[in-house]
Automatic annotation (TrEMBL):
<dbReference type="Pfam" id="PF01547">
    <property type="entry name" value="SBP_bac_1"/>
</dbReference>
<feature type="signal peptide">
    <location>
        <begin position="1"/>
        <end position="28"/>
    </location>
</feature>
<protein>
    <submittedName>
        <fullName>Extracellular solute-binding protein</fullName>
    </submittedName>
</protein>
<dbReference type="InterPro" id="IPR050490">
    <property type="entry name" value="Bact_solute-bd_prot1"/>
</dbReference>
<keyword id="KW-0732">Signal</keyword>
<dbReference type="InterPro" id="IPR006059">
    <property type="entry name" value="SBP"/>
</dbReference>
């Protein structure tokens, strides 16, 4: 998705990975395109919080990198999600481009930068360093983009070192308090939500002003869809009809859930952070969201909880994680390649997994935390059945904002399901690239 689904699930970091270059050293930083001997600084941008699994793992990777490259320092520059999202095309087209940066995957983000010629083709490094052997086909989908910026084929413009997917988080203490059984099937899920409503508890944490609400709806559609449906919608390999059975079921069911009180109309203006915090504070028994919350829930939730895949669906939202991309104008590309290589090493991958991330190349037996093991096992199950269905806003530019505003209207009753789906169809058809 615009992957703005994660924009408030993280806290920005002010981590200083190494002492900043002094004035004299900065004048010497840079080096040749191949990262020759005069390169003394690797400029790195990312927006992971320091307590997230990625933040912890990448901080360790910085230390490992500096140990392997005596005399070279990593200059980590704090950049917010929105800052990178809005300014990347301008910055990457200048001489101020970093050597390596985290960027959002998908047609509307990394695909657009690749189409504009702002990213380095990593194909030779991917093959030489064996990165392609570490990434499953589903995870690698978002790494490659064709000449039109459409993911799934073409050149390698990015490499993820983690994956992500959505799941249902359950507050087991609240279930126990109200004498409600933890659901295992979709029917049991709806029965549990009915039971909570009767107890005066709104069962689902939600955020209408950001990604959470649209992801509930997309998951409902996915529960009635298959891989060809996903490929038509996401990769333009067929006609997408928003009035088909899957989308119609999703819109009708979501609107019905609001009417039944499973989802509060008051959450129409809430943001993702609000939804996550309400769950952390024990105000909602259920949250459907992504693995990007896992590390934070591990450290902040003071109750017994667990998670599981959406019941009754072979597909769920997910993909490879955000990408390491090397700007076309990067001055120290070889150093950037070396850093990517370190993040894909067993040492860093195992650390990422143990901290609640979803590593792409970890030794599962080396992950000791029980919840982290379950997180990785569920991802492996999804990956094995080709169950990652990406995110609803990915297919066309600007679709995220359309999904937010239209889903808000559906929540308030200002738009009926049929009109909601027609609005999505219009925006989607307008944005689908001509191929």
């Amino acid at each position: 998705m615009l992957t703005a689904r994660r924009r408030t699930a993280r806290r920005l970091t002010t981590l200083t990975a190494a002492a900043l270059c002094g004035a004299l050293l900065l004048s010497a930083c840079g080096g040749s395109d191949s990262g020759s001997g005069d390169a003394k600084t690797l400029r790195l941008w990312h927006y992971e919080g320091p307590d997230s699994a990625m933040g912890v793992a990448w901080n360790a990777a910085i230390k490992e990198f500096e140990a392997q490259h005596p005399g070279v320092q990593v200059k980590f520059e704090e950049k917010g999600f929105e800052q990178i999202q809005k300014t990347a095309p301008m910055v990457l087209n200048s001489s101020d481009a970093p050597d390596l940066m985290e960027y959002n995957k998908g047609n509307a983000t990394a695909g657009q930068l690749s189409k504009q010629g702002l990213l380095t083709d990593l194909g030779a490094e991917v093959t030489a360093r064996g990165w392609d052997k570490k990434l499953s086909a589903a995870v690698a989908t978002t790494s490659r983009y064709d000449a039109n910026g459409v993911m799934g084929s073409g050149k390698w413009y990015g490499v993820p070192d983690y994956a992500e997917y959505t799941m249902v988080f359950y507050n087991k203490d609240l279930f126990a308090k109200y004498g409600i059984a933890r659901p295992k099937t979709f029917d049991e899920l709806t029965a549990a939500m009915d039971a909570f409503v009767k107890k005066g508890v709104t069962p689902l944490a939600n955020a209408g002003a950001e990604y959470v609400a649209q992801q509930y709806l997309y998951q409902l559609a996915l529960s009635k869809a298959d891989r060809s449906w996903v490929d038509s919608y996401q990769l333009y390999q067929g006609k997408t009809d928003f009035h088909d059975p899957a989308w119609t079921y999703a819109a009708d069911t979501f609107a019905d859930w609001v009417r039944k009180g499973y989802i509060s109309k008051k959450s129409t203006g809430s943001k993702a952070e609000d939804a996550g915090v309400s769950w952390i504070q024990g105000k909602a028994p259920i949250l459907f969201s992504g693995s990007w919350w896992y590390g934070r829930f591990q450290s902040e939730a003071k109750f017994d909880w667990d998670s599981g895949l959406w019941p009754g669906s072979e597909l769920t939202l997910g993909s490879g994680g955000n990408l390491w991309v090397v700007p076309k104008n990067a001055k120290n590309k070889e150093l950037a390649y070396d850093f990517i290589d370190i993040t894909l090493s067993k040492k860093i991958q195992n650390l990422l997994g143990d901290k609640g991330g979803v590593p792409v190349a970890a030794d599962a037996s080396a992950v000791t935390d029980p919840r982290a093991k379950a997180l990785i096992e569920n991802f492996n199950a999804l990956s094995a059945r080709d169950g990652l269905a990406f995110y609803p806003d990915w297919p066309v530019n600007g679709f995220y904002d359309v999904l937010v505003s239209e889903t808000q209207k559906l929540m308030t009753g200002a738009e009926k399901p049929d009109g909601y789906l027609s609005a999505l169809q219009k925006a989607y058809d307008k944005g689908v690239p001509q191929r």
